[in-house]
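Researcher: I've been going back and forth with a colleague about how NADH dehydrogenase might be arranged in three dimensions. Neither of us has a model we trust, so I'd like an independent prediction. The organism is Bacillus mycoides, in case that matters for your notes. Sequence below.
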Amino acid sequence: AAAAKAKAAALAKQKREGSEEVTDEEKVKAEAKAAAAAKAKAAALAKQKREGSEEVTDEKKAKAKAKAAAAAKAKAAALAKQKREGSEEVTDEEKVKAEAK
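Model: Here is an independent structure prediction for NADH dehydrogenase. You can compare it with whatever you and your colleague have in mind.
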C-alpha cells in the first residue's frame, strides 16, 4: 500500500510540474505494479518467518516497505523518461539506472 501511494504521488507530482501528461491507464498500471511488488515483498517476509530462518522485526518490515517505495519511485521515473523521449519500451539498463538514482 505504501509503495502504491508513493507511486501515485510521484505520478501526480510529474503531472503538476507539467513534465508530461500522465494518463489514467498509466496510473492504474503503475499502482498495480507497485501493489504487486509490495505483495511479493510481504509474501517473502511471511515465508521467511514461517520457515523459522529468522524473526522478522518491525525494522525489517519498515526496510522492506522503504525498498518497495524506492522501487516504485524508480519505475515512475523510468515511465516519465520513456514518455518524454517518446520511446515505447524502457530497457532493463534504464530500469537499473533509475533504481540506482
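Researcher: What would you highlight for our discussion?
Model: I'd start with this: The mean pLDDT is 75. After that, consider the following. The chain has four helices and no strands.
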